[in-house]
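hey all, quick one before standup. I had two proteins in the batch that finished overnight and I want to keep them in one place so we stop losing track of which output belongs to which input. First protein below, input sequence then structure tokens straight from the run.
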Amino acid sequence: MIDLHYWPTPNGHKVTLFLEEAGLDYRLHPVNIGKGDQFLPEFLAISPNNKMPAIVDHAPADGGAPLSVFESGAILLYLAEKTGRFLSSDLRGRAATLEWLFWQMGGLGPMSGQMGHFNVYAPERIPYAIERYDSEVRRLHRVMDKRLSESKYLAGDEYGIADMASYPWIGAYSKLPADFVAFPHLGRWHQAIAERPATQRAYALGPTVNPDAGKPLSDEERKHLFAKRD
């Protein structure tokens, strides 16, 4: 059994995508980031960077005590190695998967998050920041589109953890849709993943955990999400 500490954000969706695809038994533990649950001592004990998702595996491969893992990319890699799924055992296939997984963690996710922040959540419009992150995300989409013109999925012909990591960040903000006209290969890939039954099950969890998703943020939510903390 795996405990998943989760909130329905792009990074949270990454892990439910894997768990639903793999059919692993798991329990959801909501981490309401708008109420500050990510700063609770019991959560910081398994995720010291006060970010979700995090997991606790109660049946690790070494047979030892429960094992906690934080950071969504590390979780995907851990689960892939645990199950032997969605990560090629072939040297070159594995290398390609890790390249694109780390590309997402270091680029697509952070840049898309900043684009969303300055376009959707910032209390004032800062044109330089908006243009900076819009332009960078578009560049990253162009990189993906070029790759997906050459292969079915990011690491080759098989769906894998690099795709699970990247998919939730494409069109993550309803006000900022991806340009599938300019990037048709990206659009083809995105539609194929959206149609997977496991994807639909994973995303169906969101409204059950956070029925207020999409509503304007309250002052309390802004404080927990964006305010400076000592």
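OK second protein, same deal, sequence then tokens:
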Amino acid sequence: MSTTLIILISTIAILLIWGVAIYNQLVAFSNRYQNAFAQIEVQLKRRYDLIPNLVESAKGYLSHERETLEAVVEARNEAASALKAIGDSGIDSGSIKNLAGAESALGAAMGKLNVVMEAYPDLKASENMQQLSEELTSTENRVAFARQGFNDAVMSYNTYRQSFPNMIIGNAFGHREDAALLEFADSAAIQDAPKINFS
């Protein structure tokens, strides 16, 4: 066997191993951000389950504020549908934008409900409402933390995928697009979880 042939075979083997390593790292980063999104999903589902309890508890006190309560329920349902769509079709930039828009609308509806509830001291003093407030605040903090973890994982994936020569390997094996960050239209919503205060 000639030296040239050995060098050629060795070079091809090294390139193949290197390509496989890049592909495996892309898969690992992809799995990491998908797992991070699963953590967001758990917390969002928890919040979506708490909101009907909140609305039901407030109904007795806010009977003439029906529009506000219906807006909260409608926004909650739209956000839950957007989250379900991601579960059905996978994480892509369009579905992440839909979820972010639905979450922004839900945050606005919850903010309006909070403003209305400020005018009802008996409602704010209710033990049930205080407990729901604590659970919602805790959940909002968990959502914010999980969203940060997701966005960090997305940035790691995108940075690795965009690097040269990783993008060549990635494009050849299905990693053609950047993953989308979960951002909200209102930049303040990214930094601060919605304030829900019944006391």
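Flagging for whoever picks this up: DSSP finds seven helices and no strands in the chain. Residues 3-59 form the longest helix (57 residues).
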